[in-house]
């Protein structure tokens, strides 16, 4: 099930008010519950494997699904969840700078290269002048997409542009591409309406797109865009959080990546 923030808070309140679990039973239990926010899709499948591993460590991972990149950190800071596993360090840093969140990295999880895909052309060499190119609208993924276009010599950025540039940093667009920014979750659905779009791997796979069909794709070697497990600042040294990280960085999760995604998602630890 996919939760908006409002729906999640409503369901959480209902659980607290109407749960019939005796307090004595809760107190006697040695199992610790950790609510982990994730984005629906392939990451959820990997998190379900981590959940099974965590059971052997007396940790009950309750997965909370989100469909918007901007909500899981808000939910974490608001204590609606205890951790999340959906973002990269640059994405987290951008949200900390914009919203003054107090977050900490627990550890790395997996790597999901961003790529450009198309339903209309088979090669980047076929990209026509004035092509419509859709890119994510969040600062981190938009910067990743623009950097890929720069690497392919399709656009140029202003001198001293930040490591994660924005559309306003583009100073040369000789082919007059129409650069359109959309919510990351919409990009795979926009492929029929644009020439190509930059889509994150966690949206590529559910859309039935072969990651190997990317016209342009990030090189994950020494990439700063590894996904991370994040908690509230101050919680990173809690023993149960260390067990949570061990569950996500387990051999079982690594095997699930190999068996289900065949190199499209790779371990980052």
UniProtKB/TrEMBL annotation:
Pfam families the record matches: Lipoprotein_9
Entries under SUPFAM superfamilies matching the protein: Periplasmic binding protein-like II (SSF53850)
One GO CC term, this protein: membrane
InterPro entries per UniProt: Lipoprotein_NlpA
Membrane topology annotation: Lipid-anchor
Transmembrane segments: none
Similarity remark: Belongs to the nlpA lipoprotein family.
Name of the featured protein: Lipoprotein
Organism: Commensalibacter melissae
């Amino acid at each position: 099930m996919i939760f908006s923030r409002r729906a999640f808070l409503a369901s959480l309140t209902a659980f607290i008010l109407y749960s019939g679990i005796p307090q004595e039973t809760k107190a006697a239990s040695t199992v610790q519950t950790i609510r982990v926010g994730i984005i629906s899709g392939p990451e959820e499948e990997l998190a379900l494997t981590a959940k099974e591993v965590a059971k052997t460590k007396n940790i009950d991972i309750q997965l909370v699904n989100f469909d918007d990149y901007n909500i899981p950190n808000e939910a974490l800071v608001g204590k609606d969840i205890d951790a999340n596993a959906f973002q990269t360090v640059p994405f987290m840093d951008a949200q900390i700078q914009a919203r003054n969140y107090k977050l900490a990295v627990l550890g790395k999880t997996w790597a999901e290269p961003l790529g450009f895909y198309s339903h209309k052309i088979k090669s980047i060499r076929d990209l026509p002048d004035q092509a419509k190119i859709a890119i994510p609208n969040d600062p981190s993924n938009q910067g990743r997409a623009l950097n890929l276009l720069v690497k392919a010599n399709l656009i140029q950025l202003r001198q001293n542009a930040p490591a994660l540039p924005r559309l306003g940093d583009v100073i040369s667009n000789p082919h007059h591409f129409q650069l359109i920014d959309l919510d990351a979750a919409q990009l795979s659905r926009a492929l029929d309406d644009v020439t190509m779009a930059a889509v994150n791997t966690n949206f590529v796979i559910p859309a039935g797109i072969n990651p190997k069909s990317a016209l342009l794709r990030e090189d994950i070697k020494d990439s700063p865009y590894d996904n991370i497990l994040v908690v509230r600042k101050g919680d990173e040294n809690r023993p149960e959080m260390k067990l949570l990280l061990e569950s996500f960085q387990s051999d079982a999760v690594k095997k699930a990546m190999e068996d289900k995604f065949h190199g499209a998602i790779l371990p980052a630890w």
